[in-house]
Design a protein that fits this description.
Layout lengths: L10 E3 L2 E5 L6 E10 L10 E2 L5 E4 L2 E7 L7 E10 L6 E3 L9 H23 L2
Antiparallel strand pairs: 1-2, 2-3, 3-7, 4-5, 5-6, 7-8
């Protein structure tokens, strides 16, 4: 993965996706896990903070939710990174990848395989 080529777009299998990293040369890809956004479509259940782009819970004015949280049906978090090095490695975020089960665990492994195969094929061309 130690070159300028990169996966040009996001590759997704089920709830797991690989996305090229931008702005951090240490990593080539981030592996993301998508899940239903609990805030999506519930803006009316919160109270708008006057003069700000935040809302708060009706019974707790100190717990705020940014207005952007209501816009997407899915949210995501990072499971792992693939390093950008001659000998690439997978760097997990805590135990997140090991907490996956069933089809999500299979998708994670398939995404890793896809990224490494993609890079191997493109390195052979050079």
């Amino acid at each position: 993965m130690y070159h300028d080529r990169e996966l040009k777009k996001r590759k997704r299998i089920g709830n797991v996706a690989a996305s090229p990293m931008n702005g951090d040369d240490r990593y080539a890809y981030e592996i993301l896990f998508y899940y239903p956004n609990p805030y999506y479509g519930h803006e009316k259940d919160y109270i708008k903070v006057e003069g700000m782009d935040y809302y708060h819970y009706p019974d707790d004015p100190y717990c705020r939710v940014h207005s952007g949280c209501f816009k997407n049906p899915e949210s995501c978090y990072v499971l792992a990174f693939i390093t950008n090095a001659e000998e690439p490695d997978v760097v997990s975020v805590g135990l997140r990848p090991w907490e996956l089960s069933g089809s999500d665990d299979i998708a994670f492994r398939e995404i890793l395989k896809y990224c490494f195969e993609y890079e191997y094929e493109n390195n052979d061309e050079e």
